[in-house]
């Protein structure tokens, strides 16, 4: 990956230092040739254009191809390769020779290409239709894993580099923050062109004649412009909501975190028709973890984003319908018919509903912090947030694993990380391996028995005031970025009052309900046919592996419920 390449750079194939650009073996090429066609290409021929859905997967047979951001207009002899004319400075560029393939995970998820792919010279490519590629990735354990692993690494690299979407707006604008959060949650590569100090952002606004009401602006592929778009408009433009869900299904799963993903995959693989919905994106809170190190089977750890992307491909493989982003607003069960109403007006009737809507992050009750909620406060620590913070010092609040993971991850780029913990001993609520990493890191300072009591700043956060509770001593810490991990509350308000909850709002299931029914399943709520799994369920173990286990277990209970006629009202 280089920037503003000269002639000598265009003659050099991009080195594969991270496993993102493997060269396929003759046997693997033969497998692909059985479902594809080899065709000649001419110098400058565009195979896929940024901002447009790719029609095919390409493997270089002869010659070389070039992959880079934006729409270079090579056929018109236009822009300089390696220059990103949509703003943001230099662009990502890759050169690939025989045996290598192009694209990233978006090719498998119905997204437009975020880069233009063009032949650098006369040669030939193997053209494989996307549906055939999907079958190979989900059906061929060896070749499929080579392609999928490379695609996941490439997406991670693109996110880190800031390729893909350009979001033009003020970093202090709640609307801009909403779009940035949406792109990050959906693992869409993007970069903010900040109107507060980026000359290229001002140039774009002038060139497009953008008015105050049109900001923020989203640029896709350098040519498609969305002015002050809604989340749904951006989703549709990115192909995230490529089809409407069916009006009826056997099973409707609300919430696409680990529990919901597991329930969907197992139910769909057992032959049920399944709709999986989520208010924002797949992955839930797990997708916000830069690295999960204690998940069985991944000794070197796995990012929450990769886990979510892999599970999403399984959802599609077994024929389930993903409906996101769309927030569930209420559940009705009149006459024994279960129906969920969504914010966009969609209604879905289901024979069984599985609630996996998880939890919502708790806000920090510090004086004046609400002024900076949408500009300087974060509830996730991924490569996107790390890029926004740069080398600035940051404050992380919380004493659990999420806070510890965030502190260690952010310390890799931030000048310093201040970890604010109410308790006296990190080991009370944090895994031992994380405690060791936090305490050993030279750029992390742990403030024990301390709380954030005030936020200060003008247009953005400039510092936080913390108080050491035993002594009452206060200290001001300079920081423009505050990360909060202080627990969550169950995201179950959309269900209404007609379903039993415990004193903290979690859904009661099985024998714990007040209306005993010998036929009620262990994960079934007080409303027949409505099941609860994962973090939203009372008594659940708040661990990702436990959530996945409940997602797998609930399918048998749904089956037993439907076998009895599917109605006990």
Quick gist of this model?
Helices cover 25% and strands 24% of the residues.
Kindly describe this structure:
This protein has about 575 residues and is α/β, with parallel strands linked by helices. The chain contains 13 helices and 28 strands. The strands form seven sheets. Strands 12, 13, 14, 15, 16, 17 and 28 form a seven-stranded mixed β-sheet that branches. It has a five-stranded parallel β-sheet with strand order 19-26-20-21-22, with helices on one face. It has a four-stranded antiparallel β-sheet with strand order 2-6-4-5, with no helix packed on it. A hairpin with a 4-residue loop joins β24 and β25. α11 runs parallel beside α12. The termini are far apart.
Number of helices: 13
Q: Report the major sheet.
A: 7 strands, mixed
Radius of gyration: 25 Å
Shape: globular
Q: In terms of per-residue confidence, which ranges show pLDDT below 50 for 5 or more consecutive residues?
A: 1-8, 72-83
Oligomer: single chain
| β-strand amount | 15-25%
What's the count of strands? Answer: 28
Q: Which structural class do the helices and strands define? A: alpha/beta
Overall average residue pLDDT? 90
Helical residues, percent: 10-25%
Span between N and C termini? Answer: 61 Å
Topology:
Layout: H1 7-10, H2 26-33, E1 37-41, E2 46-48, E3 56-62, E4 65-69, E5 93-96, E6 115-119, E7 123-129, H3 130-139, H4 143-161, E8 165-169, H5 174-185, E9 190-194, H6 199-208, E10 217-220, E11 224-227, H7 231-237, E12 248-254, H8 258-269, E13 274-277, H9 304-317, E14 321-323, E15 328-332, E16 338-342, E17 347-355, E18 359-361, E19 377-378, H10 383-389, E20 394-397, H11 401-410, E21 417-420, H12 432-440, E22 444-447, E23 450-457, E24 461-468, E25 473-478, E26 482-484, E27 488-490, E28 530-532, H13 544-563
Parallel strand pairs: 8-9, 12-13, 12-17, 13-14, 17-28, 19-26, 20-21, 20-26, 21-22
Antiparallel strand pairs: 1-7, 2-6, 3-7, 4-5, 4-6, 8-10, 10-11, 15-16, 16-17, 18-27, 23-24, 24-25
Helix pairs in contact: 3-4, 8-9, 8-13, 11-12
């Amino acid at each position: 990956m280089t920037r503003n390449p000269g002639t000598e750079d265009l003659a050099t194939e991009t080195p594969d230092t991270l496993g993102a650009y493997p060269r396929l073996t003759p046997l693997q090429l033969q497998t692909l040739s059985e479902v594809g066609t080899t065709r000649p290409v001419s110098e400058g021929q565009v195979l896929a254009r940024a901002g447009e859905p790719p029609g095919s997967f390409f493997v270089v047979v002869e010659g070389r191809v070039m992959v880079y951001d934006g729409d270079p207009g090579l056929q018109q002899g236009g822009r300089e390769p390696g220059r990103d004319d949509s703003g943001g400075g230099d662009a990502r560029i890759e050169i690939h020779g025989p045996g290598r393939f192009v694209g990233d995970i978006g090719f498998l998820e119905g997204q437009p290409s975020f880069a233009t792919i063009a032949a650098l010279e006369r040669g030939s490519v193997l053209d494989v239709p996307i549906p055939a590629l999907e079958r190979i990735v989900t059906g061929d354990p060896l070749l499929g894993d080579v392609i999928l692993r490379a695609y996941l690494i490439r997406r991670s690299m693109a996110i880190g580099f800031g390729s893909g979407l350009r979001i033009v707006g003020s970093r202090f604008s709640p609307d801009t923050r909403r779009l940035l959060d949406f792109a990050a949650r959906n693992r869409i590569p993007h970069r903010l062109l900040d109107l507060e100090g980026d000359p290229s952002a001002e140039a774009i606004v002038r060139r497009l004649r953008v008015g105050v009401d049109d900001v923020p602006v989203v640029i896709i592929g350098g040519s498609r412009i969305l002015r002050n778009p809604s989340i749904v408009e951006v989703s549709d433009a990115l192909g995230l909501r490529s089809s409407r869900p069916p009006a009826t299904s056997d099973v409707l799963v609300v919430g696409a975190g680990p529990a919901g993903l597991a329930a969907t995959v197992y139910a769909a693989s057992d032959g049920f028709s399944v709709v999986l919905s989520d208010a924002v994106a797949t992955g839930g809170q797990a997708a916000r973890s830069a690295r999960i190190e204690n998940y069985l089977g991944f000794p070197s750890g796995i990012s929450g984003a990769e886990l979510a992307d892999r599970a999403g491909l399984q959802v599609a493989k077994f024929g389930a319908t993903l409906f996101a982003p769309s927030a569930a607003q209420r559940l009705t069960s009149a006459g024994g018919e279960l129906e969920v109403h969504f914010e966009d007006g969609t209604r879905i009737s289901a024979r069984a509903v599985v609630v996996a809507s998880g939890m919502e992050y708790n806000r920090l009750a510090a004086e004046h912090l609400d002024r900076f909620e949408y500009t300087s406060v974060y509830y996730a620590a991924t490569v996107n947030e790390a890029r926004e913070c740069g080398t600035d010092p940051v404050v992380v609040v919380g004493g659990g694993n999420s806070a510890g993971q965030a502190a260690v991850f952010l310390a890799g780029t931030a000048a310093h990380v201040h970890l604010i913990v109410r308790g006296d001993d990190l080991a009370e609520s944090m895994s031992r391996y994380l405690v060791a990493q936090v305490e050993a890191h030279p750029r992390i300072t742990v403030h024990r028995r301390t709380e954030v009591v005030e936020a200060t700043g003008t247009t953005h956060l400039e510092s936080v005031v913390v108080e050491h509770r035993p002594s009452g001593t206060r200290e001001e810490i300079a920081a423009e970025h505050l990360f909060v991990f202080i627990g969550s509350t169950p995201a179950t308000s959309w269900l209404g009052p007609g379903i039993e909850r415990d004193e903290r709002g979690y859904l009661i299931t099985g024998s714990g309900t007040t209306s005993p029914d010998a036929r009620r399943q262990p994960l079934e709520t007080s409303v027949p046919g409505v099941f609860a799994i994962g973090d939203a369920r009372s008594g659940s173990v708040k661990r990702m592996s436990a959530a996945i286990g409940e997602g797998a277990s609930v399918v048998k209970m749904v089956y037993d419920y439907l076998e009895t006629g599917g109605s006990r009202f």
